[in-house]
Amino acid sequence: MRFGRLVQTNFLYLKKKLSDISKIIESQNAFFRTQKTKDVNFRLQLLKSLKAEIIANEEAIYTALHKDFKKSEFESFISEFGLVISELNLAINNLRKWAKPKRVKASILTFPSSDYIYKEPYGTVLVIGPWNYPFLLTMEPLIMAIAAGNTVVLKPSELTEHTSLLVSKIIDKVFSSEIATTVLGGIDVATELLAQRWDYIFFTGSVPVGKIVAKAAAKHLTPVTLELGGKSPCIIDDTANLKLAATRIVWGKFLNGGQTCIAADYLLVHKSIKADFIEILKTEITRFYGNNPKASRDFPRIINKRNTERLAKILKDTNVVFGGEIDINDSYISPTIVDSPRLDSPIMSDEIFGPILPILSYETDKDLEEIIWNFEKPLAFYIFSKNKRFVENTINKFEFGGGVINDLLIHFGNHRLPFGGVGHSGMGAYHGKLGFDTFSHEKAIIKRGNWIDPPIRYAPYSNKKFTILKKMFKWFG
Ligand code: NAD
Fold it and tell me: Active-site positions, per UniProt (predicted)?
């Protein structure tokens, strides 16, 4: 009821905000110049208030995510709320260290000197978020942008209106709009935002929109991080522990209803074990979600009817060997296995982004190359195998954002690992300190001593100076 009313006010709220975009940017730019965000204590205070407000809203966050696509509280905790709180704790506990100028070894060529890297916030940052993890993927960049001393305008997705509105309310409660604010709305609002000049743009979403963002950023030479998607393969070779592989694949593929950028998009199973593996997968899906996943409280819905229809369409004329139940009105598609789709079929053309798992088979490394190189560089890559040589060769052979051996998704959970894509799956990376680094320009500073000034570099040049200079470069350069 409470949320229903909030959503009704959404339009007015949005209209007001739209007319304010350039004023918001102006005020954020002006605030940035006051130098207040350069004060680490100020940033820490903001992060602590944000943490308190998020914790106070824990139940409301679960409710909003459930209203948006029936996401369970359990999944909302492990894949959104919990990760956001860990990222906040990490930033709060380490910010002083991260923000301090870092002394680096001086070069003999600049002797005498003390050399440093200063972390400098970019200024006013635009963050555009997707709908699939609508709390995590808006809050995480916001946290690191604020930690790094920027001001932020955040546009969450229009498709998760309950969560996006709640994100907006939390931000408005914690920050004055000259430090951070949200602008709610869809493509028109995003287009309007992208037409402005920013100091940094952080975008999470699809490849086609990523190209639009990159083009808009190029107009002002704005640095950009693009966290995109793609068709992420998962190889299961004939040495893999099939039961464990199936359990982990069913977890990682059907979490969030398969709407995860790093979900395995399709499986490549060694021909000799494929039939057995499909049977084990079926058993595991039933163990997770019962005989009727629609009735399971743990299985979310597709984000909206349009996406459900899209998935129903790509499922047409495929060899469904498990699942395949569709209820457009309920935005429901059951966990589904498709056997041996053609590479040129719709299901294999684009990222699936839903609970449909196509299974292809291979026999040789050449088969793998032919299939995997058929697609752009993926965001994630998974290998289930006990053959260490095969694993190393495969990691080195294929280009991809990041991956896991013998599991799915968990590389997202280690804040010491960079998270990001390559090629069409994105550019730039974040998480943990790397997120702080993403939102910081590294300023090189040399502090020079005055007590000695070797004259070698100064004119008039001479053969003797030149010989010494060459030797110095040879020995120390
Ligand atoms: P999307 O690209 O449709 O939308 C993302 C954001 O861009 C939304 O806020 C939307 O309003 C805005 N947008 C949409 N069309 C636009 C346009 N023409 N101009 C400007 N802005 C526009 O993506 P989505 O459907 O929300 O999310 C799904 C995609 O995101 C998948 O491809 C998935 O792989 C990817 N994704 C990537 C990551 C990652 O971390 N790499 C994480 C989550 C999702």
Answer: 227, 261
